[in-house]
Amino acid sequence: MEYRTFGRSGWKVSEIGFGGWQLGGTWGKVDDKNSIETLLYAFENGVNFVDTAFAYGNGHSEKVIGKALDQWSSGKIYVATKITPIMNKSKSLNLDNNPSIKDCYPSWYIREIIEGSLKRLGTERLDLIQLHLWFEDGITNLEWLNTLTILKKEGKIDKIGVSLADIRPEQGLELAKKGLVDSIQVLFNMFEQEPADLLFPESSKTGTAIITRVPLDSGALTGTWTDNTIMEWDKNDKRRLMYRDNRFKETLQRVEDLKKLCNPYYPTLAEAALRYSLYRKEVAVVIPGMRNKREVDLNLAISDGKKFDSELVEMLRPYRWKHEFYN
């Protein structure tokens, strides 16, 4: 396992972290016993960074991770979780309406969620707490940061971060320039290449750590999908909604194009995609989801210090595709 410095924190984190969304049950059925075994297996093989959130199964992912941590005693595991913003009456947030950060993250609510996360994870202090969505008026309206700073002084949290909306990396530019937080999490993969344009360089200037997620584009970039894959997902699997109508067919065609491009360089598209997610030096850790030991092995195999082919980076630029499938 290769390790990278987590921004200005000084932490040395495994470049492959453990994304915990699937542990909450949103992506189909999960078995908690298997999830705990998978987490422990990942820890045994060098993973020391786990990302979760209250929103992942209303805290279920946090509980599962907490149980795994309770069984682990061989070294430090950095755990990052998130504060879900308060939803409006329709239970959704339209970022185009420019909601106020003060309304979405009032002080009492921040404290309430953090206290709950501490209990579910079974710890006295959270290594990293992230706002699960960023609202740009947070640059000037700093009540959220003041509240988190107080909680930091109380010993409830260590570092503060922000997780950006999936296709809006530009929202984090001012945040990165000012260095207000310790880390910024953003979606970055062969399709969603935009963060590398401006966000990564600006974050580097202020020592803001970059966490990248969805390196395999919710499974599409594994290169294993077929025409029938969508019918194999459980009815409650989030991908059923994401890839509705013509989305699945379009994605599959784009994936086939990438396979042809990457085949001379890497044996599988999954390996190429994972290596791509780490090719920028600004990236501290990438957090693919892992359901079992086999997936842990596949993900960790690419952490070998080998650099992604620079020629292929340039060849991939025309394949960038800004898409939003979470609505």
Produce a short descriptive summary.
The protein has 327 residues and is of the alpha/beta class. It has helices spanning 32-44, 60-70, 101-104, 107-121, 143-153, 173-178, 199-206, 229-232, 238-242, 247-262, 269-277, 293-300, 310-316; strands at 3-5, 12-14, 18-19, 49-51, 78-83, 126-131, 157-163, 183-187, 209-213, 283-286.
Secondary-structure blueprint:
Elements: E1 3-5, E2 12-14, E3 18-19, H1 32-44, E4 49-51, H2 60-70, E5 78-83, H3 101-104, H4 107-121, E6 126-131, H5 143-153, E7 157-163, H6 173-178, E8 183-187, H7 199-206, E9 209-213, H8 229-232, H9 238-242, H10 247-262, H11 269-277, E10 283-286, H12 293-300, H13 310-316
Parallel strand pairs: 3-4, 4-5, 5-6, 6-7, 7-8, 8-9, 9-10
Antiparallel strand pairs: 1-2
Q: How many discrete structural domains?
A: 1
What spatial order of strands do you see in the largest sheet?
A: 3-4-5-6-7-8-9-10
**H/E element string?**
EEEHEHEHHEHEHEHEHHHHEHH
Count of alpha and pi helical runs: 13
Average pLDDT, all residues: 92
**Largest sheet properties:** 8 strands, parallel
Residue share in helix: 25-40%
Instruction: State the low-pLDDT regions, or none.
Output: none
Quaternary structure state of the chains depicted: single chain
The end-to-end distance, rounded to whole angstroms, is 35 Å
Structural class by secondary-structure content = alpha/beta
- By DSSP, the count of extended strands is 10
What name does CATH use for the topology? TIM Barrel
Integer-rounded radius of gyration = 19 Å
Strand content: 5-15%
User: Quick one: overall form?
Assistant: globular
Question: What is the CATH architecture annotation?
Answer: Alpha-Beta Barrel
CATH class: Alpha Beta
The CATH homologous superfamily name equals NADP-dependent oxidoreductase domain
